Amino acid sequence: MRKSFFSILLCFILIPFTISAISLSEIENDPIRYVKVYEVMDETGCYYTGSMYVDKDSVEVLLCAPPLYTIRGKTYFIDHGAIIQDTRIINYDYNQSMETITKRLILDNPKISRDEFIKKYLDIIHINSGITYSETYSKMYNSDGTIALDNLPDIPLQKCGSFSGIGRAANYMFYKCYNHYFQL
């Protein structure tokens, strides 16, 4: 009697671990939920070696206090059959958004040419994209969904480039919450 009780109890305890596992086919076969935001090319530029996805259903606003915003969401980076799942907390300074920078550049330079505008805009966001992020609850899965590494170390707050995979994920999450992109 005790053995069967403990066996049933063990099954209920292990259910959350099997439910949270994710496989490559699950991500690739559900493009409505898992949105591909970035692809990594090899050095020749001919082959994709990795991809980053955002779990659309996990995206949520933590802070909306203009000009500061904070959003949390899960990302999945797939590279050579390994899947790295992270919960990212992304901070945005709207003073560095595409909309604010565009208004500031046009106001300061009313006769700015298109090429000069693009150069100045890219220079500004290269110095400060307005996006910082941290990572928590990281896990690594094999392509079949089995856990390879659990509880990877958290990554503290750091700057984020607009055109990096994380920058693309951050941009998509902002779009998901506010219906417009933070950067290009």
Most strands sheet? 8 strands, antiparallel
Intertermini distance: 63 Å
Q: How many independent structural domains?
A: 1
Q: What is the structural class?
A: alpha+beta
Residues in helix, %: 25-40%
Mean pLDDT across all amino acids: 87
How much strand? 35-45%
Uncertain segments are 4-19
Number of strands: 8
Q: So what's the overall shape? A: globular
**Gyration radius from CA atoms, angstroms:** 20 Å
Count of DSSP-assigned helices: 5
SSE pattern, N- to C-terminal = HHEEEEEHHEEEH
Protein described:
- There is one protein chain.
- This protein is of the alpha+beta class and 184 residues long.
- It has one domain.
- 34% of the residues lie in helices and 37% in strands.
- The chain has helices at residues 2-20, 24-28, 98-108, 114-127, 165-178, and strands at 34-41, 48-55, 60-65, 68-79, 82-93, 131-141, 147-152, 155-159.
- Strands 1, 2, 3, 4, 5, 6, 7 and 8 form an eight-stranded antiparallel sheet that branches.
- A hairpin with a 5-residue loop joins β6 and β7 (147-152).
- α3 (98-108) packs across α4 (114-127).
- The radius of gyration is 20 Å and the shape is globular.
- The N and C termini lie far apart (63 Å).
- Mean pLDDT is 87; it is low at 4-19.
Furnish the topology, listing elements before pairings.
Layout: H1 2-20, H2 24-28, E1 34-41, E2 48-55, E3 60-65, E4 68-79, E5 82-93, H3 98-108, H4 114-127, E6 131-141, E7 147-152, E8 155-159, H5 165-178
Antiparallel strand pairs: 1-2, 2-4, 3-4, 4-5, 5-6, 6-7, 6-8
